[in-house]
Amino acid sequence: xxxxxxxxxxxxxxxxxxxxxxxxxxxxxxxxxxxxxxxxxxxxxxxxxxxxxxxxxxxxxxxxxxxxxxxxxxxxxxxxxxxxxxxxxxxxxxxxxxxxxxxxxxx
Amino acid sequence: xxxxxxxxxxxxxxxxxxxxxxxxxxxxxxxxxxxxxxxxxxxxxxxxxxxxxxxxxxxxxxxxxxxxxxxxxxxxxxxxxxxxxxxxxxxxxxxxxxxxxxxxxxxxxxxxxxxxxxxxxxxxxxxxxxxxxxxxxxxxxxxxxxxxxxxxxxxxxxxxxxxxxxxxxxxxxxxxxxxxxxxxxxxxxx
Lengths: 107, 190
Fold this sequence. Notes:
Helix content of chain A is 43%, strand content 11%. Chain A is of the alpha/beta class. Chain A has one domain. In chain A, strands 1-2-3 form a 3-stranded parallel sheet. Chain A is globular. Chain A starts with a strand and ends in a 6-residue tail after the last helix. The mean pLDDT of chain A is 94. Chain B has 190 residues and is an all-alpha fold. Chain B has one domain. In chain B, 79% of the residues lie in helices and 0% in strands. Chain B starts with a helix and ends with a helix. The model of chain B has no long low-confidence stretch (mean pLDDT 86). Chains A and B meet through helix 3 and helix 5 of A and helix 3 and helix 4 of B.
């Protein structure tokens, strides 16, 4: 089981959607922190994502990071493998799950 | 608040008289033997019993009502905090939309996090007492739509441009959420 602590492993001030928008974007987070765990199609181990400790997340960041991951590797695989911990903002987990489930609605 | 106190006092007085009536009816129900009242001291004891019953009955009833109203007032305060946080977030969002910079962007994100945390507390309160805080689950959906209208692309871009359609959407989604919060508050005392 792998653990990704966004505040420690990435940044405490997540940015916008694309790398072209600036630093610490959702795209950058997805490519650097999430996708390495999805390279092996047979790997079905759990990945725990700790969301606490940041200033907050823009919709564009979350949608691109998790919705983008679901578009690339499939929503069922993402929902099965990803577990979220958010003690500060309890609605955040539902928000991310919604972006994964509705990933097809975005480009 | 004043109306609540008035209600407690009125119910207290009513319960006090109900207690006296109940105490007076005790002998006629033959709960106490007729010889008991032959003693002269008995009127005093009877009076004491009546007062005790009245106080006990009014204490329990007004206590229950007071606790319930206090709970409602606390939840109403929470909804008020959410309303003021929502208005603050809208103000900051417009500041960012009109003149975007990194500082304003951070403030908007922090405010949305605070608002989300408050809604999380509200959700916990609802889970603990569903009858007291009866609101539609779509309140959280409305929040996410409002957040999306402000913080989805072009938010955070180097030079974000919000179209007039997009700013209309921000206002529209704020209005929907604001309306739902008022409904929540009204339901608390209905």
